[in-house]
Each structure stands twice: as structure tokens, then as C-alpha cells.
Amino acid sequence: xAAITASMVAELRAKTDAxxxxxxxxxxxxxxxMAKAEELLRVKLGTKAGKAASRVTAEGVVTSFIxxxxxxxxxxxxxxxxxxxNDSFLTMAAAxxxxxxxxxxxxxxxxxxxxxxxxxxxxxxxxxxxGLIGKIGENMSFRRFKRLEGNLAAYVHGSRIGVIVEFDxxxxxxxxxxxxxxxMKPAALTSADVPADLIEKERTVAAAKAxxxxxxxxxxxxxxxxxxxxxxxxVSLADQxxxxxxxxxQTVSQMLKAANTTxxxxxxxxxxxxxxxxxxxxxxxxAAQMAAAKGA
Length: 296
Fold this sequence. Notes:
Elements: H1 6-16, H2 20-29, H3 34-45, H4 48-52, E1 59-67, E2 70-78, H5 87-103, H6 108-112, H7 125-136, E3 140-149, E4 151-157, E5 161-168, H8 171-184, H9 196-211, H10 217-235, H11 252-258, E6 262-270, H12 282-295
Antiparallel strand pairs: 1-2, 2-3, 4-5, 5-6
């Protein structure tokens, strides 16, 4: 039997974009014959992985993992909502969250290099990802993650919105805050923490509206400042009205004070947030195909 070298595996992987271990298995089965090994991989995985790699992944899931005082939140994307419900995809996403918590990778590339095997693919998480792309025929990616240490509470709503909260105090109150964040999506802990670019954007909008009033400049300035202050209260966690407030008035900061609890940070992920989705124009596509047919 021919010796299978690392360079042979690398060459086959470059040709097929198949996972490393799958390349090695194919070369072994083909007794080192590169062409035969490539054919075996094409039969097993098709050309799906390479073709899928460039497609937009704006669906997917957010999942969390907490073990003691270490936890993680991760967003793993797919092309369609259908695949986001696939058991293999969900197993990989859950495993990725655990790997982040336990190994503290520096970035997505480091996460992918961690040891992990699933569904016959491996030996790394990246190899499993590529293997599932070939198997399922749809692109998928690890978009972002956050690892925290301390007292942690997490809440995931319908797999598409995930929150992890770092706190001191009562765990039940912290879990309620995580649920609140998922529902109300604050921009920051307090008004002082709201990013300057968001404030400036709101100030610009408020100024444009106030200018239409035709009132004196000093009145317009007060109107703008009032609008900005109202905005800050609406987007800061501490000032928002708590979603479970019995009186409909209690703020999150008041609820936490009553529970003798402090929220130190929160991380909120919404699946696909900020990703530009491709909108298919079916009519335009049909028209283009008909035009191409006439020109043929």
C-alpha cells in the first residue's frame, strides 16, 4: 500500500475543499492515486463545499453554554432557516459554544482549529464545518462569539435571539434581565455607555425634525437635547421599564436594586443582524433566462 503523505493530503484538500481526514481516507482507499481519490470525494461529498463557500449565511442560531463560572454565547449561521433546524447543524453549534467556554479561542479561526469530531468528520471543528457543508449542500459559518467568566445567566429565545449576562447577586433577577434584554434590545447598560455614534445619529435626526418647527434657535436646541435625553432612556438597560414590572413603571435599575443585584455586562446576539441578505427577484430571473434563450 502506498504511503499517504501530508503533502498529498494538502494537495487533495486544495483541489476539493474537503475536510482533511476525508482527504486522507480517500487517498488511503485509492492507494495513493490522486485522481481516484478526488473521484471518491466527488461521489461522497460532491462539489458542494467549494460552491457553497461563497454564499451568504444570514440565517442560523444563537446558542449558549455555561459551566460553573465560565460561559459563552455564539452565533452560527446557515443559508436557510431549514438548515438552522438540522440536527447535525445544531449539534455543531452547541459544541462550538462549549469549545469557546472551555478553550477561550482568540478568534473564529482559532475556534475552528480546536479538536472536534462529528458525523464522521474531523479532527477539527473547521473540518466538521466543511464536512457538513459537503453533506448538507449549504454554506454555514461561525460568525461571532463572546466568552465570559463570573456569575452568569443566559437566555435564548427561539434560537434566534441570545443573551448572556454577567452579574453579582440574585440569579433569578439576572435571568429576568437576560429575558428583558432579549425583548427590549437595549444598546448599553446605562445612558453613559451608549456609543457616541448612536447618540450623534439620533441628534442629527432630532435636529432635522426640530428645524421644521420654525421656532427660535434656542428653542430648537432645547427640543433637540430633550429628544436625545429621551432616546438615551429608551436604549439604556438601567432606564428601560422592566418588561415584567407589575405597575408598568418600575425600571430595570429599580428592580435590580430591590433584588440587591448588579448587572456588570450583557451581550446580545440576534441572528443575521447586520448581514445583508440577498433578495431574489424571481420575475427578473425568469426574464433574464428567457432573454438568454432567445439569444442562443
